[in-house]
Amino acid sequence: EAGVVQSPRYKIIEKKQPVAFWCNPISGHNTLYWYLQNLGQGPELLIRYENEEAVDDSQLPKDRFSAERLKGVDSTLKIQPAELGDSAVYLCASSLEQGATTGELFFGEGSRLTVL
Amino acid sequence: ELKVEQNPLFLSMQEGKNYTIYCNYSTTSDRLYWYRQDPGKSLESLFVLLSNGAVKQEGRLMASLDTKARLSTLHITAAVHDLSATYFCAVDGTGTASKLTFGTGTRLQVTL
Predict the structure, then answer these.
(1) Is the pLDDT of residue B26 over 80?
(2) Reduced to 3 states, what is the DSSP secondary structure of residue A82?
(3) A92 and A7 Cβ atoms separated by less than 8 Å
């Protein structure tokens, strides 16, 4: 069974340019997460979806970041415009769960963004 | 706000030695996860601990959870080079929109 698939794996852009990352979760997983991981640190949650609904986007910088999961399957995370401080790895994860308590998360390989 | 602290942040150990990584967290939770991350790779789930006193073992790794002390340990027995990686604990926060809060990670280097 395929795991969580993310693309692109690597992206280098100049500051102020837009960038988008795509994630396809494990088939049947209703919950999808976008995490940000800075070098040498643990992942930090940006947004969590249950099906199509964003149930926790409190950590998403909404002035420049946006995300969507239109059909409750794959998801896109966009940054516009990118800033130097956005250089990081953007991880997508999915889980199969119901209700409020999180279960085991399965992570994709991440999209490494470098902003010059 | 839930805070998760791991120590040590970096651990260099020789093959064959034993050691323990500690994960402390600041608020009530009864779910804790351990992940492994190799350089440039994603996070791989190691253990899911769902209740006080839970203990799980896989190969040379054993994880335990003490919810009263808000402490989890990851014990390494007779380390081998293949265990070199960064290990993260993650705690499930309580509330209506629970989420995992990760520790800063422990970078383990096992030398030959």
Answers:
(1) yes
(2) coil
(3) no
Residue B90 in contact with partner chain A when CB distance is under 8 A: yes
Residue A98 has pLDDT above 70, yes or no: no
pLDDT at A56: 86
* B31 interfaces chain A, CB cutoff of 8 Å: yes
What's the CA gap between B84 and B66, in Å, rounded?
26
B62, B67, B72, B75: CA torsion to nearest 10: -30
Which tokens is B2 given?
């839930």
Chain A residues with CB-CB distance to B104 below 8 A: 40-42
Q: Which of B4, B35, B99 faces A56 most closely, judged by CB atoms?
A: B99
Q: Tell me: the pLDDT tens digits for A57-87? A: 988 999 999 999 988 899 999 999 999 999 9
- Residue of A90, A92, A104 to mutate when probing chain B, most B C-beta within 10 A: A104
- B-chain residues within 8 Å CB-CB of A110? 42
Cβ-contact A33, A94 below 8 angstroms: yes
| pLDDT value at B53 more than 80 | yes
